[in-house]
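Hey, I'm writing a tutorial for new members on how sequence and structure tokens pair up, and I'd like a real worked example in the thread rather than a made-up one. If someone can provide the structure for the chain below, I'll link this post from the tutorial.
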Amino acid sequence: MGRLDGKVALITGGARGQGRSHALTYAREGADIVLSDICAPLPAVTYPAATPEDLAETVRLVEKLDRRCLASQADARDSQAMGALVDSAIEEFGRIDVLHVNHGVAHSATWDGTTDEIWDTAISVNLTGAWRTARLVIPHMIKNGGGSIIFTTSAATKTTYYGLSHYTASKAGIAGLMRTLAAELAPHSIRVNAIAPSAVDTPLGFNQTNFDLFTGRPGSTKEDALHVFETLNLLPVGLLEPQDISNAALFLASDEARYVTGVELSVDAGTAIQPPGVPPATSAELAQLRQQVAAVDEGKTVQP
């Protein structure tokens, strides 16, 4: 027996990354799946966009789990396109029990490099798209007697990341939207929550632009950047896996969380509560370097 048997879940940004992981996790637990993804490049976004082939692959993988899947190459900001998808989902499945607003974009730019195009893309895609999608699904959940809405925010809503003012503003806006909707929709038995991940191993979070930003060196490799990402977390890990986020999302989507609403759940390896000072990962590396230097001073051979 699955934790989502008989339920229908709509997931935005479902072509790859966290969205695909959520779709497969929900499907394994018995849900039928509705997917949207723009599958096209967006202004000022430097990493490659998901493709129609990515979306088709997610559909194939869901159907391989013997669950039905409806998908549309739709922009979350486009009320007409998303409305058509929601209508199709209701016609096909009769209900939408779970809405996971997962889509988003991230640009790495300090304040003086944040153009109008960068700002407008982040706010419109991440925040406006989240609102317009939720607004379309809510009436059906009210008619159905309840549901679960999950937004993907970010650890950036709880701590500070350098060079992400536009992204942080958009995600903080979603956190505020989540709390307000949780209050307004509680009488309808609709729970509204968010998940705030730190760096996840997806094209959005881990790409060449971010490698260069976080290391301060153009042309840095993933391995170079991973050492920097490790310093952001309290737990000894540099990157989370999409499945780590899906595990938390499954709880919020399921009846196990039937009395959980208005919560922004951190799945961030401790990023949001990182105390001031030198992070543990850096401290360990500094201690190792001190040992190596001391050994060299004593004329010993040291393995790097």
